[in-house]
Amino acid sequence: xxxxxxxxxxxxGYSLLEVIVAFALLALALGLLLxxxxxxxxxxxxxxxxxxAALHAQSLLDTVGVGEALEPGRRDGEFDDGRYRWxxxxxxxxxxxxxxxxxPAAGPRLLELALTVQWxxxxxxxxxxxxxxxxxxxxxxxxxx
Length: 145
Description:
- One of its GO terms (cellular component) is type II protein secretion system complex.
- Its main location: membrane.
- By secondary structure, the protein is of the alpha+beta class.
- It has one helix at 16-63; strands at 73-79, 84-92, 109-119, 127-136.
- The protein has 1 helix and 4 strands.
- The chain has one domain.
């Protein structure tokens, strides 16, 4: 009696093509994930820089006119060893009055403080601009710049 050959066993597993497709999908998913994480890292860094610039600006505005007379003009400086640069412009503030209104009598005047703090290359997203008004005593002689 002759025996029939046993049917060949089917091998189980993945073909090379399936493995290559799986690696391609994994690489694509990891690329998207890393791109998202790097964008989030940039946002966190920008947020930290902007917050620090706001603290420096608040500190500078708190000290302007304290201990010295506030006078019109421009001043520049730096914070954190040059990482943040600031520019302060002080000028008389003119209230927009109707033309028929007479000019106010001599007395205390308002000054406008315009502070700009920049960091990085100073692009539009790396700049903080603040404006404030301060009351100058009547004894100060103000000259329009």
